[in-house]
């Protein structure tokens, strides 16, 4: 098996052309996903995380959407160059999707077994009997009790959590190499959410599937992530292993998100200010109007490049030496590994705003 990443996104730009101007929803995003790895993309609603995931298989409506630049290399092939037929084969084949609302993902007039078999039959040449057996076995693998009987039930006969399990079974029907799950637990209550997160962990162990998990909730990230991509206003602010992000966060935005978690010293304090306009984002660092560490240089030019972060002072470029911990903040230019005291550059300060919006979807 190749050691190359399963998915490599380079300088991805996804724009939407509207009457008010061009929305740069994803603006120069780069990250990799290894085989068998779970990568969480986290950020406030409107940060561009869902559009990033939808751009991978070009699920965005075009027009008004456009992949304006960059590459999405999936197992050696640039997905942005594929024909519509090739993209259809990829979706529901080697790349499966699980969306936020299981109700909307299931057709109420067909049995769940029919809908799973539809996904199987679109990509595999099985007899009707084999296809049904596989549907039952998929329902078993996602934890549906008495799957042999439930396979002939309709979606309305399942609870919300069980419906999401069915949607996951459909996504797994073709044994995808990559599963993209966009806020898959947001519509579920906390107990069911915990069960579904456990299911994702179990399925990954069983199938060795790579998973992209989109969420606004760092509590969910802590449960499932191997690696984390923190997005803000269409840009990547920080990437690192889950351990690096939670134990040694570098970017002021990541730190602010963590302080919103229950039990932290900030105690559910929202981040002051709100996301900038995606049509006219601020110059310089897009986070500067809300950043307590901002200085004059943060307002000028483009978003800072990503720098290796050496939180352990071990001369390796990041805190565990694997080169994975990277941060887009001028304070880390030149190998610095600490933020200055807050208030040092207080001439900018924070603009009042609506606070952190933690709703799902974008
Ligand atoms: Fe804050 Fe400046 Fe760093 Fe942006 S570059 S996160 S504004 S300190």
TrEMBL record:
Residue ranges for the region (Disordered) are 303-362
Enzyme class, top EC level, equals: translocase
Name its species. Natronoglomus mannanivorans
Note the subunit structure: The complex is composed of two ATP-binding proteins (NikD and NikE), two transmembrane proteins (NikB and NikC) and a solute-binding protein (NikA).
Q: What residue spans carry the Acidic residues bias annotation?
A: 310-321
One of its GO biological process terms is: peptide transport
A cellular-component GO term for this protein: plasma membrane
Q: Which GO terms describe its molecular function?
A: ABC-type nickel transporter activity; ATP binding; ATP hydrolysis activity
Cell compartment(s), UniProt: Cell membrane
Q: Which reaction does it catalyse?
A: Ni(2+)(out) + ATP + H2O = Ni(2+)(in) + ADP + phosphate + H(+)
Annotated ranges, domain ABC transporter? 7-258
One Pfam family, please name it: ABC_tran
Q: What is the protein's given name? A: Nickel import system ATP-binding protein NikD
Report whether Cell membrane shows up as a keyword of the record. Answer: yes
Q: How does it sit in the membrane?
A: Peripheral membrane protein
The UniProt record lists the EC number as 7.2.2.11
Q: Which InterPro entries match?
A: AAA+_ATPase (IPR003593), ABC_Ni/Peptide_Import (IPR050388), ABC_transporter-like_ATP-bd (IPR003439), ABC_transporter-like_CS (IPR017871), Oligopep_ABC_C (IPR013563), P-loop_NTPase (IPR027417)
Query: What keywords are assigned to this protein?
Result: ATP-binding, Cell membrane, Ion transport, Membrane, Nucleotide-binding, Translocase, Transport
